Amino acid sequence: MKIESIRLKNFKAFRDVHLRDIPPFLVVVGANGSGKSTLFDVFGFLHDCLKGNVRQALDKRGRFAEVLSRGCDPNQDLIQIELQYRMEISGVERLVTYTLEIGERGGAPVVVKELLRYKRGRYGSPYHFLSFANGEGYAITNEEEFNKSDEELEREQQRVAADTLAIKGLGQFERFKAASAFRRLIENWHVSDFHISAARGRKDAAGATEHLSESGENLPLVARYLHEQHSAVFQKILATMTRRVPGVSSVEPRLMDDGYLTLRFQDGSFKTPFLDRYVSDGTIKMFAYLVLLHDPKPHPLLCVEEPENQLYPQLMAELAEEFRSYAKRGGQVFVTTHSPDFLNALELEEVCWLVKIQGRTEIHRAQDNAQIAAYVAEGDQLGYLWKQGFFDGVDPR
Known about the structure:
single chain, six-stranded mixed β-sheet
């Protein structure tokens, strides 16, 4: 499933923006405070709504009034999120639209509207396969019977708590195909919040192993999983590490005598391997990114903020290519950056930038700027153009 467009209204600095034709690999540039983290937080917000409820997701961000854009009326205005994504349904790729509107009534958050719709055939308007308002609504149970008319579709009436997403409950049942697929999409998003300190040290060998967690604290466990279950992938990671990090000749996930797991890094100059707490932050981070980006089962959406931190500028081109390769394997990638070297490795359609004007954030696409497009066509690179001030409203210094 690939996200094609995002529309936001009254979500923090995004008063009304619509990002269309999103590529598999998108890099976002912007000055500090322009809204890069907020754009990623849209995905985190939906994920939190699904894990708990809307109230908990809002409370985590300072409650409804803090998430609602400045200047809006909490008693009247709504937070609106709309995602369009492509997915295969009954052998046909279809454009699905998910719409969520959140308001506040009597000091309590309410899901005012929640819709999931797509076209059943080539013509006609998109059909609502899930439609809820204020905790009440319906979902279609035989949506894949495309030989039937709209009138023959079976609606199942349901009620949910007014501050709970309908897809949270209904998405657990296979008979609600669209809701179930969208729930799985959100559940498998990976919005990275990697902390080098969390990745270091001994780890309980009984933790999660298949996918790197958002903070990276299970790095040794995932490394052992790849080493044991996907040895070819692990050897490829090691080959890249030895090429990029001077001195590192091997990395070994070692189960200690006390039952805890740790990473041991071998420097070719020494006979005894080093524990991970003695290697540099950049080495840990590079290894973590390689483990993440070589995941045998890519996340449907991967969001990473400023991957250039603690890494050599010369590595940016290779890292950008690895993000692009991840996207080609099926995991859409969003990245924010302040690195001209990273931008220099990107294509015109892969870059957008954010500009904050009078408290409101606007989104600009590099491919829509005629001057930037002309320079790139003549051989200029996007990082150099950014440094020279061609990204209007963004100062890279």
